Amino acid sequence: MLPVELYRGDDALRNDREGVLRRTWQFLGHETMLPQPGDYLADVIGGAPVVAVRKPDGALAAFHNVCRHRAGALVADGAGNCGEAFTCRYHGWKYALDGRLRNAVDFGSVPGFDPRQYGLFPIRVESWRGLVFVNLDAGAAPLADLIAPLAARWPDGQAAFPLVERRTHAIACNWKTYVENYLEGYHLPMVHPEFDGDVVVSDYWTEIEGEVVFSGAPARDASVYGGLWAWLWPNLGVNVYRHGYMMERMTAVGPAETRLDYFYFFDPAQTQALPEMLKFSDLVTAQDLQVCEEVQRNLEAGIYPGGVLSPKHETGVAWFQDRIARALDLPRPPRLAVVG
Ligand code: FES
Ligand SMILES: [Fe+2]
Q1: CA distance linking residue 317 with residue 234, whole number of Å
Q2: Predicted TM-score of the model (pTM)
Q3: CA of 292 to the centre of ligand 2 (A)
């Protein structure tokens, strides 16, 4: 297990943001959420406000959502259209959609002020099957490297499915508490007894390839889930259903505050199955939320010194903890049985 200190307090959050969340590919949304020139998506990644925008040539660009004058925000968080330029919300500086400072509006003349030195700070943006990711680390490996194991296992027949629903859930726990819960099926019989009607829980499996943890269980005849879950390092679930899929972003908002953003993509020919799937998804989330918040409360209470991981059921958790330790330059966490 990782030291309990990593799951609580401001230092832990800061270390995770700097060592993990700002160095990895983070899911932002879907290409169809910003189809026209000037359309943008703004969000906060690893505590850093960012914005991706559709340029006139149709390509995407992404920047820190910070003005070079006095750090104003270019756009509010969320989606919108900024026209042909970003206009800073504070004093109105204008930036072309490729990031160049076009006009320091009514600034006055200052000898030596060169607008070319005040362009927006660019960040990496890459897409895969319409899914848009950003990365604050300019030296990171390409998105395709992370995605490769998923691309091999997930038929692309679902790539054309439209975004039909978004849901957000707030959970009072550290983001890693939630991730670890996502990465094991050990809790299914206790926490989600309904799952056994949908998939064969006793045959739940976990496999790790590259930096993707796959898990699944054989689907029963009337299954809505369909039984394949993929998770991409460090905080993205890809839930593949029988008739669609859901991207599940796990955002660290505070040391003990996580926001789940769910993006549902569904087969237009199967919309009659959507309400039942959403109802099941809501139920599962409410069940996970309760156990994760109870775990967090105990991690913060001080009595728990760290525990043990099942070599049969918690290989995904063990992999995640090892990966966190490596990212934060910590020793590999000890455990009873060496797995993975
Ligand atoms: S902070 Fe952007 S124009 Fe002043
Ligand atoms: Fe769960």
Answers
A1: 12
A2: 0.96
A3: 9
